[in-house]
Each structure stands twice: as C-alpha cells, then as structure tokens.
Specification:
A hairpin with a 5-residue loop joins β1 and β2. The two termini are 23 Å apart. The protein has a single domain, classed as TIM Barrel (Alpha-Beta Barrel), CATH 3.20.20. By secondary structure, it is an alpha/beta fold. α2 runs parallel beside α3 and α3 runs parallel beside α5. The protein is globular, with a radius of gyration of 19 Å. It has a 12-stranded mixed β-sheet with strand order 9-10-11-8-7-6-5-4-3-12-13-14. A two-stranded antiparallel ribbon has the order 1-2. It catalyses: GTP + AH2 + S-adenosyl-L-methionine = (8S)-3',8-cyclo-7,8-dihydroguanosine 5'-triphosphate + 5'-deoxyadenosine + L-methionine + A + H(+). Catalyzes the cyclization of GTP to (8S)-3',8-cyclo-7,8-dihydroguanosine 5'-triphosphate. It holds the Pfam family Radical_SAM. InterPro entries: Aldolase_TIM, Elp3/MiaA/NifB-like_rSAM, MoaA, MoaA-like, MoaA_NifB_PqqE_Fe-S-bd_CS, MoaA_twitch, MoCo_biosynth_MoaA/MoaC, rSAM.
Length: 326
C-alpha cells in the first residue's frame, strides 16, 4: 500500500471520469464555470491504466466520480475493466439522474456501493437549485439501485442553514424508510460563488446532530469507516447517519485517499492545490506502467499534512468540485 510522508496508508483513490454534469450542485453554482476541451480529458483506456497502476501499488478501493460519471460515453466499459482488478471495492458517486438506466449493468460490472447526491426532497426546490434537474429521475434511480441489490446505498446532502437545514429530519426519515445510509456534509470553500455567503450559511455537524436528536434517538457507531464520515444510528434501523465535517471536526489525520481528476491531475488533498500531472506521463510514455507508478509514489511526498478551511467567502481552492472529482 502507498505510504505518504506522514506515514498514512493510502488505499483508496477517487477517479473522476468527466468534469461535466447534467445539472449543477452546491459546489458548481457559478454562471462562469467552464469545462475542459475533450483532448485534455483522460480517455477511458488512460483512466483504466491509472486504476491498474494504483492497484499494483496496493490500493484496494476505487471510487468513480465526476462531474456526473454516468453521462460519459461508453463509461460502462471502464467499470467492467476496473471490475476485473483485484479490488476490495469498486464504488460510484452519482447525482442519480441516469442511475435507473445503468443500475443493473453497474452491479454486473462489480460495483458494490453507490453514493447519490441529494440535497432536498422538495421537487420545486430541487429544480430551482439544479436549474434543470428532475427529482423524480433521481428517486427512480434510487429505487432502481435498491432493486439491483448493491451492498449499500448512501445519500449525500450538503447542508446550508437557509437552504435545506430544515429538511434534514425529512431526509433522514426517507433514508430510514428505504434502508439507505445518509451523510450530511459541511460546505467546503471550493470555487468562487455569488449565490450565498459561506459564513452565514454554514451549518456544523454538531448543530445538525442537535437538531436530529430532538426527533430521533441517535447512538454513535463504534465501527467507523476509513472515510471521513462519522456515523450514528437510530436504534432498530440498519441505516447509518453520517456527518462529514471538514471545518468543525477535521479528519485529516485519518485520510486514506487521493483523487485523480478527469484531466489526469493526481490531487493529494481536497483542500490544497498540491498535484502531479499523470496525463503528461501517460501520453509521453504510453504503456509504461512502471514510470506511471514511480510518479505516483513520488507524488505522495507532496501530500499535505492537513487542510485549513475558513468561512471566508474568498475561495481557498479556485477549482469547482466538477474539476476535482466528488
């Protein structure tokens, strides 16, 4: 397994297959957002090569992200290729809009778990927030994923105080009713936005737990995952209620993951700009996996010890989440 300079094991990569989405989310609200030319995006074959190189270095888990990965042409080819690797888990993050069409094929390709972004269950608010999104398409995708039989399905909701904080109990009830996990995420300062003040809209995980504990009995779970979520549970339910707290409960000390963007940048930390250019190596030395693996190992020395987020409306990271990978 990869070991970075702070002696943390890196066994999980997030592989972004596109910087494009079919509707926007809280991290991509700018009217001025631009997309990369197609030639700058890694091909599916290059993405598969990156995945194979990481697995040979000891990585056990790969998550496919975007943008919205399921809009990438022929993306199922990539899932099938990665599904043949000796992985503990192949997983997916999606906005759910195309999940109904692909759920069975994803399960057949070896995907074990799916994360679905869902910030509201109000159809009108959903359309207003996403510009073009249809909540019913996402709900159909959730039901199709449940029917396909994935090991776990988790909803991810980014919570803002005056946007959807009042819906947190409703989202939990939905998760409990449909035997889903759910994680609530503190907003991160990625990209320049004008639609709200990050400082005024910030809602901490502790605030959300306090709110939920007026409605539900929450018990902390001891079997924490290796990821950033810290999980609680309603007695008698199998659903896990997670809180991802990059501001209020920094989780850097247990970070076990890196990201590869759609353009082939190996991003060592979500909250920093440290990166290595894998696309250049892939195209300068096609088929030479040893050079690629050495570059990955060398890049681990760039991984910062932690991120330093604030509530300042000036973005600490100028790239939006679509360019980073969810």
């Amino acid at each position: 397994m990869l070991i970075d300079r702070f002696n943390r094991t890196i066994d999980y990569i997030r592989l972004s297959v596109t910087d494009r989405c079919d509707f926007r989310c809280v991290y991509c609200m700018s009217e001025d957002m631009t997309f990369m030319p197609r030639a700058q995006v890694l091909t599916l074959e290059e993405l598969a090569e990156v995945g194979a190189a990481f697995v040979e270095l000891g990585v056990k888990k790969i998550r496919i992200t975007g943008g919205e990965p399921l809009i990438r042409r022929n993306v199922m080819q990539l899932f099938r290729t990665l599904g043949q690797l000796p992985l503990q888990e192949l997983t997916l993050t999606t906005n759910g809009s195309h999940l109904a069409q692909h759920a069975n094929a994803l399960k057949a390709a070896g995907v074990k778990r799916i994360n679905i972004s869902l910030d509201t269950l109000d159809a009108d608010k959903f359309k207003a927030l996403t510009r073009t999104g249809d909540l019913n398409q996402v709900l159909d995708g959730i039901h199709a994923a449940r029917a396909a039989g994935f090991e776990r399905i988790k909803l991810n909701a980014v919570v803002l105080k005056n946007r959807n904080a009042d819906e947190v109990p409703t989202l939990v009830r939905f998760a409990l009713e449909h035997q889903l996990d759910i994680s609530f995420i503190e907003e991160m300062p990625l990209g320049a936005i004008t639609e709200h003040s990050r400082a005024l809209e910030f809602c901490s995980s502790a605030e959300l737990r306090d709110q939920l504990q007026t409605v539900f009995t929450l018990e902390p779970l001891d079997n924490e995952s290796a990821g950033p979520s810290r999980y609680w549970q309603v007695p008698g339910s199998t659903s896990r209620i997670g809180f991802i707290s990059p501001h209020s409960e920094n989780f850097c000390a247990s970070c076990n993951r890196v990201r590869v963007s759609a353009e082939g940048k190996l991003l060592l930390c979500l909250g920093n700009d440290h990166a290595a250019d894998l696309r250049h190596l892939l195209r300068a030395h096609p088929g030479d996996r040893e050079i690629l693996k050495q570059a990955i190992v060398n890049a681990m020395q760039l991984k910062p010890e932690k991120h330093h987020f604030t509530h300042d409306d000036t973005p600490q990271i100028v790239r939006f989440m679509n360019a980073t990978g969810g």
